[in-house]
Amino acid sequence: MTTLVIASGNTGKVREFAALLAQLGIDVQPQPDGFEVEETSSTFAGNARLKAEAVARATGHWALADDSGLSVDALGGAPGIHSARYADSDAARIQRLLHELNEAGAHDPAHRSARFTAALALADPSGTVVLEVEGLCPGQILEAPRGEGGFGYDPVFFVPEAGLTFAEMPHSQKALLGHRGRALGSIKKEMLSYLD
Asked: Does the model's pTM come out above 0.90?
């Protein structure tokens, strides 16, 4: 069985990828504890590439990296590539996001448009990136959190298509509509041809 290392220290993200890949007969593993890759690129795709290359070289296994984040139109695209570093906890990140939207005067749902982006990069065991893709999920930022599931900004990210926040969706629905699921769905067949 092929081992695929998820190039992330975020347990929620690793868990989500493991669920998305569960049917593929791949041994999905998290990156080594304490392993850090400095995200120095100014783009999601560039950071995903950096992480996939570094984790593949460090482990000697195939590595799938994701760099993802939330871009809010009323905040000029912030937090963007800084989504994970916007504050020091999920609750604090959500609080800062809602505060900044209020400061920007974005009270009407039409002014709270946002999108999640997931850039994926697959690197072979030598650290060469062989596949790259981006997935997008458009939505809106609610004024207060809703739902108990998910992680990160999921409780305030409302997907009009579903009438739910990411935190309210069952895993299967988030896998279908979410940015990671859309990105992975677009490369899954090609990815499997490399991992066979």
From this structure: no
